[in-house]
């Protein structure tokens, strides 16, 4: 209907024009180029450009094809849409401005001349929307027990439909279910499924949505994995001379963070006990517990226990500190000390370990070993 009305309007103009211009041999207006399609981000300005040569006193109108709406005629804006404007340069180059483009503006537009027959050209306005990640359907930070199955979700919209990719903030490989993805630093898809998560999966995950319309967006989801403490000890038997300084070491892993402390022969060692130096070096869920005995005395020998507790459980490990001094002469101590630096020390340690509880036997073996080594050197 509107279009017909428009044609009527333009033809009316045409009639007048024809009357006026009949005297000259009439120059016929023609388009210089075809109208170009536009792709515009929502909120920006779209400008169609229609170039007409020899317009004379004909008029240029802009129309919205899909809705059959007349937008402008010559320099007049006909539509009530305030986001529409028209301007021209020398009546040759005609611009249709659409400010603050909305998705509803997507469609076909026409530049029309009121010639007889009417001349027109059309072009398409595509409205694109940068990606956005929807808060509600997208996973928030997760806390789970080790061994659980976890699915992280990311919901994004935009035009065109965005691609969603998951990756770890650390850049590490992703833990996933599908064998084919094992080598991937990122996987595409809205869902990141993780079967039987472990402490190694703890950390930040990024969901990144992109659709070619800048800017891309991402959301960070942290995965916290809870597990009871475990303790590992490298050296469970340590021999020391009286007067030595010795450091006992335990490695604990726990999350939430554990409370860590030491006991000797069942008594808690106080942090303020000046005979000891207690340190705990934390790195993520790992803790290196160190107990330094500044100067070993007779009373320091015995069983040390390192203990780790969190809300999910507790664990401990023991280290036995035994004397390698006592019945020896000072000279012999220094000999043994020299051998401690010998690469064969591991053999010596192994012997110590297997015989540790029986200290008299152990001393005998140590003495023998020392003698054997001495013999090797002097022969
Ligand atoms: C018409 O709009 C175009 C595009 O914004 C601009 O370059 C041009 O200067 C304007 N012309 C006039 C006469 O306002
Ligand atoms: C303009 O866009 C329409 C709709 O997407 C498409 O069919 C047409 O081929 C495009 N024309 C040009 C010249 O790109
Ligand atoms: C986790 O998923 C695996 C494989 O789908 C299933 O066998 C297992 O029972 C699930 N575990 C839990 C705790 O739901
Ligand atoms: C995994 O990586 C390969 C090669 O890097 C790629 O072709 C494949 O599409 C990726 N798989 C997923 C699910 O992203």
From TrEMBL:
Which segments constitute the Ig-like domain?
29-126, 131-222, 228-325
Query: Secretion signal: which residues?
Result: 1-21
Q: Name the domain of life.
A: Eukaryota
Keyword line: Cell membrane, Disulfide bond, Glycoprotein, Immunoglobulin domain, Membrane, Repeat, Signal
Annotated InterPro entries: Ig-like_dom, Ig_I-set, Ig_sub, Ig_sub2, Neural/epithelial_adhesion
Q: Is Signal given among the entry's keywords?
A: yes
Question: GO terms for CC?
Answer: neuron projection; plasma membrane
* One family name in Pfam for this protein: Ig_3
**Compartments where found:** Cell membrane
Entries under PANTHER family matching the protein: CTX-RELATED TYPE I TRANSMEMBRANE PROTEIN, DPR-INTERACTING PROTEIN ETA, ISOFORM B-RELATED
Q: What is this protein called?
A: (apollo) hypothetical protein
């Amino acid at each position: 209907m509107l279009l017909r009305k428009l044609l009527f309007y333009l033809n009316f103009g045409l009639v007048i024009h024809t009357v006026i211009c009949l005297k000259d041999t009439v120059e016929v207006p023609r388009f210089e180029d075809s109208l170009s399609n536009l792709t515009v981000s929502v909120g920006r300005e779209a400008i169609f450009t229609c170039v007409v040569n020899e317009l004379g006193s004909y008029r240029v109108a802009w129309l919205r094809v899909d809705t059959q709406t007349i937008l402008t005629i010559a320099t007049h804006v006909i539509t009530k849409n305030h986001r529409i404007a028209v301007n021209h340069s020398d009546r040759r180059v005609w611009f249709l401005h659409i400010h603050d483009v909305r998705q509803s503006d997507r469609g076909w537009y026409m530049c029309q001349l009121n010639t007889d027959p009417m001349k027109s050209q059309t072009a398409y306005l595509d409205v694109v929307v940068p990606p956005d990640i929807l808060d509600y359907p997208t996973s928030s930070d997760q806390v789970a027990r080790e061994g659980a199955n976890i699915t992280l979700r990311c919901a994004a919209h935009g035009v065109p439909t965005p691609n969603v990719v998951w990756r770890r903030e650390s850049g590490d490989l992703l833990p996933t279910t599908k064998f084919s993805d094992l080598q991937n630093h990122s996987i595409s898809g809205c869902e990141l499924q993780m079967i039987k998560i472990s402490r190694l999966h703890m950390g930040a995950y990024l969901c990144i949505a992109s659709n070619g319309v800048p800017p891309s967006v991402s959301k960070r989801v942290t995965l916290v994995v809870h597990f009871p403490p475990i303790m590992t000890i490298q050296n469970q038997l340590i021999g020391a001379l009286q007067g030595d300084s010795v450091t006992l070491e335990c490695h604990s892993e726990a999350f939430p963070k554990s409370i860590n402390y030491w006991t000797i022969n069942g008594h808690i060692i106080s942090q303020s006990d000046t005979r000891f130096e207690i340190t705990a070096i934390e790195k993520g869920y790992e803790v290196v517990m160190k107990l330094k005995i500044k100067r070993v005395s007779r009373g320091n020998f015995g069983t040390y226990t390192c203990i780790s507790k969190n809300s999910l459980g507790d664990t401990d490990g023991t280290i036995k500190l035994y004397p390698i001094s006592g019945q020896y002469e000072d000279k012999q101590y220094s000999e043994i000390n020299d051998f401690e630096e010998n690469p064969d020390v591991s053999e010596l340690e192994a012997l110590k370990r297997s015989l540790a509880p029986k200290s008299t036997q152990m001393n005998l073996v140590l003495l023998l070993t020392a003698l054997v080594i001495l013999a090797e050197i002097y022969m």
